[in-house]
Design a protein that fits this description.
It contains 13 helices and 19 strands. By secondary structure, it is α/β, with parallel strands linked by helices. The strands form four sheets. Strands 6-5-14-15-16-13-17 form a seven-stranded mixed sheet. Strands 8-2-1-12-19-18 form a six-stranded mixed sheet. The protein has a three-stranded antiparallel sheet with strand order 3-7-4. Strand 10 and strand 11 form a beta hairpin. The chain is globular. 48% of the residues are buried. It binds flavin-adenine dinucleotide.
């Protein structure tokens, strides 16, 4: 069978390695970090992400580890409901509830599905040759070049593989917002909910084991840093409705992560070149407003694995098929995510905020559910 080299051991890269391994490929994942892992934050996995994990044989384990969502809905900062989600109806529509999960847990599950030794840490890829499949990487002992029949560029937002293969493409741009995230211990049940204020959004995602993931995002100039990020989050969200202040009180200052949000404003003309396929943020870094970045990476991985099931002999057709299946959908989701951010978190004008509230309250619940389900309703290709 063929030899696949995956550049980047994030959620997308590991998922691609698992998918290819399940289709008989020998896989090596080159990860630049010295220790494999993920940031201390959560993810809400919707039907599409869960179905992708089912196709990787990991759906049941993720459901057991995470927590099935009790959807609450959308509120304003005083706590008034703008739109409520009927969880049972959403489940009937999509066939499953969303699941809140710690990113580190998902990463660990993906790692366990790989053969021993497949993940190589402390290996920073510097160059990839799309025609030969040669991958040059730097590690503690020097520089090594290895060759794959297939190379997967899963090296994230600032992808070196993307820059090497599409050197004229502009780098990712700042999306206009910065976000804080943390995971806290919170033994009582909470619904999954999002709250909008002018130019700001706070989200709550309960996970398994009595933990809750929260995030807060605001429109702001790039590069901002506060001496105490938790105090900054309190300054911006501490007067919002409960349980937001209580969650912030339960948060350890060291647990708070802050990231400026970037996305690929100019979509790639192709996700493949020669023997190389891009996936995840390397292919379509998007804003997090629809909570779809990692889930699109999981979809990419499953589709790439299925497309390459015929082995290296059929690679050009397989990669062409991967590109045709993934590029339109993931780029559409990226555009929708940007729009969702403009209508949601980034809206500041008081008149527009009031008009949005009225529109949301007048939207029939079924139409709101259909809008929510739109991008989550995806099914993996038959292998
Ligand atoms: C604030 C925020 C909230 C988000 N919320 C959600 C959400 O709720 N749901 C959701 O689905 N998505 C969410 N996302 C998006 C999600 O985090 C990303 O889309 C997802 O992690 C992308 O996975 P990836 O594997 O493609 O890239 P990454 O996770 O960035 O992984 C890339 C890996 O490649 C490695 N690497 C980089 N360069 C090299 C190199 N040269 N050589 C070797 N290794 C290299 C990196 O160390 C890293 O491990 C959020 C993002 C942000 C910023």
């Amino acid at each position: 069978m063929g030899e696949a080299i995956v550049v980047g051991g994030g959620i997308g890269g590991l998922a691609a390695a698992v998918a290819l391994h399940r289709h008989g490929w020998r896989v090596t994942v080159l990860e630049r970090a010295a220790v494999a892992g993920e940031v201390g934050a959560g993810l809400s996995l919707m039907a599409n992400g869960l179905r992708a994990l089912d196709a990787l044989g990991l759906g049941a384990a993720v459901r057991a580890r995470g927590r099935a969502d009790t959807p609450g809905g959308l509120r304003d900062r005083t706590g008034r409901w703008l739109s409520r989600v009927d969880g049972d109806q959403l489940e009937r529509m999509l066939g499953t509830r969303a699941v809140g999960v710690h990113r580190a847990d998902l990463h660990a599950l993906l790692r366990t599905a790989l053969p021993a030794g497949a993940l190589v840490t402390g290996a920073r890829v510097g160059d990839v040759d799309p025609s030969t499949g040669e991958v040059r990487h730097h590690h503690a002992a020097g520089v090594t070049t290895i060759r794959g029949d297939l190379v997967v560029g899963a090296d994230g937002l600032r992808s070196a593989v993307r820059a090497r293969l599409w050197p004229d493409l502009p780098p990712p741009v700042y999306a206009g917002s910065t976000a804080w995230r943390a995971v806290v211990t919170w033994p009582e049940p909470l619904p999954t909910e999002v709250t909008w204020g002018p130019g700001a959004e706070f989200g709550i995602v309960p996970m398994g084991d009595g933990r809750v993931y929260w995030y807060g995002a605001v429109t702001a100039p790039p590069g901002g840093q506060a001496p105490d990020e938790l105090a900054e989050v309190r300054r911006r969200f501490g007067s919002w409705h409960e349980p937001i202040p209580a969650l912030l009180d339960a948060t350890a200052p060291a647990a708070v992560l802050r990231h400026d949000l970037h996305h690929l404003a100019e979509p790639l003309p192709s996700y493949v070149r020669g023997r190389v396929a891009l996936l995840g943020d390397a292919a379509h870094a998007m804003t997090p407003n629809l909570g779809q970045g990692a889930q699109q990476a999981l979809e990419d991985a499953v589709v790439l694995g299925a497309a390459c099931a015929g082995g290296p002999g059929r690679l050009p057709d397989a990669l062409d098929s991967y590109d045709r299946q993934r590029r339109p959908r993931s780029q559409e989701v990226a555009r929708a995510s940007l729009r969702a951010g403009r209508f949601g978190q980034q809206l500041r004008n008081p008149l527009a905020v009031a008009a949005r509230a009225m529109l949301l309250r007048l939207t029939p619940p079924r139409a709101a559910l259909r809008a929510m389900a739109r991008y989550a309703d995806w099914t993996p290709p038959a292998s």
